Amino acid sequence: MSNRIAVVGTGYVGLTTGACLAHLGHRVVCVDVDEVKIAQICDGIMPISEDRLPELVAEGRGAGRLSFTSDVVEGVTGAEFVLLCVPTPQAPDGSADLGYIESAARSIGPHLRADAVVINKSTVPVGSTRVVADALGRDDVQVVSNPEFLREGHAVSDFLNPERVVVGADSEEIGLRVAALHLRLTAPLLVTDPASAELIKYASNSFLALKLSYVNAVAAVAEAVDADIDDVVKGLGLDGRIGAKFLQPGPGWGGSCLPKDTSALVRIAEDAGYDFALLKQAVEVNTDQFRRVVDKATEVIGGPVAGRRIAVWGLTFKAHTDDLRDSPAVEIARRLVDAGAHVVAYDPEVDKDTPIAAGIEVVDDPYACCEGAAALVVLTEWPQFGRLDLDRVADALEAPRIVDTRNVVDRSALERRGFIYRGIGRT
Ligand SMILES: NC(=O)c1ccc[n+]([C@@H]2O[C@H](COP(=O)([O-])OP(=O)(O)OC[C@H]3O[C@@H](n4cnc5c(N)ncnc54)[C@H](O)[C@@H]3O)[C@@H](O)[C@H]2O)c1
Description:
This protein has helices spanning 12-23, 35-42, 53-62, 72-76, 99-108, 128-136, 155-160, 172-180, 194-225, 229-237, 258-271, 277-301, 328-338, 366-370, 390-396, 411-416, and strands at residues 4-8, 27-31, 66-69, 81-84, 117-120, 142-145, 165-168, 189-192, 309-313, 342-346, 360-363, 375-378, 401-404, 420-422. By secondary structure, it is α/β, with parallel strands linked by helices. It folds into 2 domains: 4-182, Rossmann fold (3-Layer(aba) Sandwich), CATH 3.40.50.720; 193-427, Rossmann fold, CATH 3.40.50. It has a 6-stranded parallel β-sheet, sandwiched between helices. Strands 11-10-9-12-13-14 form a 6-stranded parallel β-sheet. β9, α13 (328-338) and β10 form a beta-alpha-beta unit. α1 crosses α3 (53-62). Bound molecules: nicotinamide-adenine-dinucleotide. Nicotinamide-adenine-dinucleotide (NAD) binds at residues 8-14, 31-34, 37, 85-88, 100, 103-104, 107, 122-123, 148, 150, 152, 256-257.
């Protein structure tokens, strides 16, 4: 069945959701307050880099099922379902800032048709369906929670092949209507109450953060006891109760979701009278991981990084995305700058004119990046970093020294070429 849907907020989640729902046959209008973004999308320029997204947007627009506007009234008028996909950044006290959600809800409230269903896809604290309902100021409109679990870099395929669809609604009938929007997807469906749906999202992201902090802690032990982290992780992951995913050691976790969502869950728990010490510790382990990477750079150089040029490969928070928000790579580059280094960075998705932070220069060639640098620090797991010419890298560097925080470059090839090497979880 085809429904009229408005998507409010056309970012990573909103644009993907709009394009995919149009692909599933719905009539979708994507709304955003960012007029430049909307104009660019209408010109065929995608604001984010995601596989299949340009094709799905073109398909939807060509079929007359997908349109874009910066006029919120035009966007939501007549829509049966309105999806909120606006940011929920971290507030200074660690909680989720609901300012964008409330402002979006206030702006659409007067223009919704009676019996419209507002679906909150933004990640929000328990109780936010009530906050949205209050901001809408409408008794004839239902609000449900439908958390989104897509991964950047795989956004379209995750949306179209979800591992689960979670809907939190006060009434089962509304929950099933929202679930029906996803009918063409073959995924387990969980219809529950709003509080449980909201908690599922935070509990999922926080669990992923715990898993990554855990494996980074195990990697630190592996380094100390001369164990091989690759084999340790393989052995761990083969246990079906643990699973192999999200078990790669690295420079620390980050991105636009895990840091703010773990912090928000700590606050939600605190407000409810529970001290989530386990999660707080995972955050501390993560912050310490950034320090450990800077220490490794000092180790390979054999002295402080102050006054030295350091080459950095990778700035995005993970491979296959252009997202720099809360990137651990940027955090570590910043720490190197704070320690007095001049950082020169290369990332296949980051243009050389992109401002990153004071003291971080971006170049558009991986070898030029290494020119005269005291060491190379690999921070994002772009697969092409494992295929680059190590002779050229060694010749460009002041001396062949590398810290590979993603274990993406072939260690034995590096050692054959005489590199001083530090990985994560490897002696
Ligand atoms: N990025 C992810 O991987 C991901 C995954 C799952 C859930 N989420 C959650 O989804 C939400 C959105 O995240 P995102 O990464 O898509 O954010 P984003 O910053 O990429 O996009 C948000 C968009 O909302 C627009 N916007 C802000 N206020 C608006 C308003 N009042 N009306 C219309 N548009 C408005 C902004 O201009 C922006 O384009 C967040 O709560 C996030 O936690 C994100």
